[in-house]
Amino acid sequence: MRTILEERNFPVGSIRYFASAKSLGKVLPWKGSEVAVEDAASGEYRGIDIALFSAGASASSQLAPKVAAQGAVVIDNSSAWRMDPDVPLVVPEVNGHALADMRKGIIANPNCTTIVAMSALKALDRLGSLRKLVVSTYQAVSGAGLAGVNELAEQLSDKEGQLMWLAYDGRAVDFGKPVAFAGPIAANVLPIAGTLVDEETNEEHKFRDESRKILELPGLEVSVTCVRVPVFTGHSVAVYAELARDVTTAEATQAIAEAPGVRVVDIPTPLDSAGRDFCLVGRIRRDPGSRPAVNFFVSGDNLRKGAALNAIQIAEAMIASRS
Ligand SMILES: NC(=O)c1ccc[n+]([C@@H]2O[C@H](COP(=O)([O-])OP(=O)(O)OC[C@H]3O[C@@H](n4cnc5c(N)ncnc54)[C@H](OP(=O)(O)O)[C@@H]3O)[C@@H](O)[C@H]2O)c1
């Protein structure tokens, strides 16, 4: 978030950093100076215009109303407020108008996997009215925070000479005990991202519920399987999007190419998306089945567009709507 505020020359008068009490005493840079980290539980939030939250759902549930009550608009990265009917859930280029209805002084930043698919899906909805989505996700380890990044890096380190033996036996390499994920993530895919809440994971619920809210299609049928893959950054989604009317591949490609925040490419990959602000969409094709539908693949940086960038774009849209 700090990097993106600087990159985008966001109009910051002054900045304050908050974390838990254990980070008291730390200093972090801001444009050549050092800023001391404050304890977020201090209760002193007056004078803050915009509070960018990324402290997890339980901290956000407690703190966001307190900070908003002292006059700040809270933009929250966690899942705590996303499905609250009085809190807008915003991807600015898709449903920026939702910012007008801000009763609680809190705006929710959507789930990182959901965000990367929204602009292309909005374009298809405008083109042919979405009826149903069937999606499989390919989620990077950084979506599980630094712990996920470290786990993949450790499992890959010093293993070069041994990895080829996995071609014959999946147990040929000892990757150690998994902590952040349900099994070894190196040289593997895990068809469970997030935690099981019923027959589905919380990530699968988030994709369905948040897509319906952002696209303003409460009746949209959404079938999701969330998969964790050995990629450091860049969430990808393979999408089957059923429409109310038949559209050609050329029409779908043009509509998606004109969507904001999207670049159409032949082969979108997470590696190509990591570190970029736009999402890459490709393999766009009319589905050959009996129902009108379009298939595509999208990759987007889960830390940028999936989190920090979208939060700051929300702040920019809010400022623009007030000026
Ligand atoms: N990683 C992603 O791709 C991604 C994408 C979208 C959304 N999110 C969401 O963003 C949130 C944070 O994820 P992250 O990956 O950024 O986590 P993270 O790297 O673990 O950072 C969490 C931060 O929150 C602070 N914090 C924790 N508890 C706090 C409390 N009670 N009061 C004040 N500060 C507190 C921590 O400070 P201390 O070090 O002092 O504890 C730390 O600075 C989660 O809700 C996550 O689901 C993550």
Please characterize this protein's 3D structure:
The chain is an alpha/beta fold. It folds into 2 domains: 2-109 and 308-322, Rossmann fold (3-Layer(aba) Sandwich); 113-302, Dihydrodipicolinate Reductase, domain 2, CATH 3.30.360.10. Helix content is 32%, strand content 22%. The protein has helices spanning 2-7, 57-69, 92-95, 112-128, 145-156, 160-163, 202-215, 249-257, 270-273, 304-322, and strands at residues 17-19, 27-30, 33-39, 50-53, 73-76, 106-108, 130-139, 221-228, 235-243, 262-264, 279-286, 293-300. Strands 8-7-9-12-11-10 form a 6-stranded mixed beta sheet. A 3-stranded mixed beta sheet has the order 1-3-2, with no helix packed on it. It has a 3-stranded parallel beta sheet with strand order 4-5-6, with helices on both faces. Helix 4 (112-128) crosses helix 7 (202-215) and helix 4 packs across helix 8.
How would you sum up this structure in a few lines?
With 323 residues, the chain is of the alpha/beta class. Helix content is 32%, strand content 22%.
What small molecules does this complex bind? NADP nicotinamide-adenine-dinucleotide phosphate
Overall pLDDT score: 97
CATH architecture designation of the largest domain = 2-Layer Sandwich
If you consult CATH, what is the topology of the largest domain?
Dihydrodipicolinate Reductase, domain 2
The shape, in one word, is globular
Uncertain ranges: none
Strand order of the largest sheet: 8-7-9-12-11-10
Number of helices: 10
